[in-house]
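Hello,

Our lab assistant flagged a job as stuck in the queue for most of the afternoon. It eventually completed. Since we weren't sure the result was trustworthy after the delay, we are filing this so someone can double-check. Below is the sequence as submitted and the structure that was eventually returned. Let us know if re-running is recommended.
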Amino acid sequence: MSNTVSPFEVIVDTPDGRLDPEALLKRLPVDGVGAVVSFVGLTRGTEGDTNVLRLEFDAWKEELPKVLHRLANEAGTAHGLRAVAIAHRIGSVEPEEPIVAIHVGAAHRGPAFDACRWLIDELKQQAPLWKKEVTDHGATWKAGLG
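-- returned structure --
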């Protein structure tokens, strides 16, 4: 058995259909990993006292995977990660369906938690995604990216 640690690996997916966080997790390389931290964002069924029918995500499809790769690589460098698997839906996402999944593999839990939080925060700031919330009162484009 070798003590050589595999290089940092990144998996990015931008499905236009259903997102399966567990299937994405199974693709995460775990060689040299002692901790996996995951974040899964779901569409809420309500916003205040309004029923949410769905969220619609529009994206700059050619750039989104590039931005997700860049963010994953930045997190890997800053936090000493072994692997990142990250996916964000495009199109219509109904209540209780996953919008985004991030799985971070690191040697230790501290860097994994820090990197996962940083990734979701930066994704919401930098990813070329735009969100329209469709409720029983109409549709509204939400401010900002992600």
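-- support follow-up --
The delay was a queue issue, not a problem with the job. The result is valid. The first strand starts at residue 9 and ends at 13. The two ends are 43 Å apart (CA to CA).
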